[in-house]
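Worked example 2:
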Amino acid sequence: MSLTSSQIRYLRSLAHDLSPVVLLGNKGATEAVVKELGQALEIHELVKVKLSGGDKDERQAQIDTLTAGTQAEQIHQIGHVVVLFRRNTDEPKIALPR
């Protein structure tokens, strides 16, 4: 699902007040973390993830693993925090603008 720029802006505004739901540890983005993130996305649709330490390339590799494993879209990233979105097809909770 490709999001428009107005939809991304809207999701960024919703994510502003969220706290990170998933925190990555020293092992990074493991299968268990991807599975847990998938469950969190089913429930919330919009999730903040706090990435583990490391340089920029290491954090980007973690984001790539998480988005590929959950089929989520990256909405926003600042430093060690990334916002991911995946639409719940059965029961959508967030009404996106056109």
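The beta strands are 22-23, 46-50, 73-78, 81-85. The CA atoms of residues 9 and 71 lie 20 Å apart.
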